[in-house]
Structure formats: structure tokens, C-alpha cells
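Appendix B, record 7
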Amino acid sequence: MEVYDPSGATEVTVSFAERLDTLAGKKIALLSNEMWQADRALALLRQRLQERYPDSTLVHIPAKERIQSDEVIEAIVREGYDAVVVGNAA
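C-alpha cells (predicted):
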């Protein structure tokens, strides 16, 4: 019996950013699309990150449907965040 794998090859056209060595002392944006339960999920994540990295600065950014807009991205760059956590919970 032969089994065929119907999935094709995946071409990677954009790579992820390099990971930070640590989140300690970093300025971190918590970017939310404000969908159902996103506020709860990111609030819990923020709490856990603050407990683990008390010297980090965590900022909630409610981007809603503008999550990928140039305006939001430019603001993140302008404010000098070291890391961005993008969250949704819908």
C-alpha cells in the first residue's frame, strides 16, 4: 500500500525576527485586536510577565482592526519597543 502526502512544499519568504536573550528590563508592547476574550488573555499574560520580569515595562496597545496598519506599526517603532506580543482570543 502506498500513502501519498497531499501537502506541498512550504516556501518561507519572510523570516521571524531574532529572539531576545531576555525580557528583563525591556519595553514590551502588548498589541491587541480587542476581539472576544483578548482583554482577559493579554491581562493574564501581562500579569505573568510582570511577575517574571519586574523591571520590564509592559504597555497595552488596543489596536482593534488597525492591528496591521502603518499607523500602529510606525507608533511601535517610534516608541522604541524592544518586543511586541500580538494577541487575539477570538
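Remarks on this record: Helices lie at 38-52, 70-79. Residues 34 and 64 are 5 Å apart (CA to CA).
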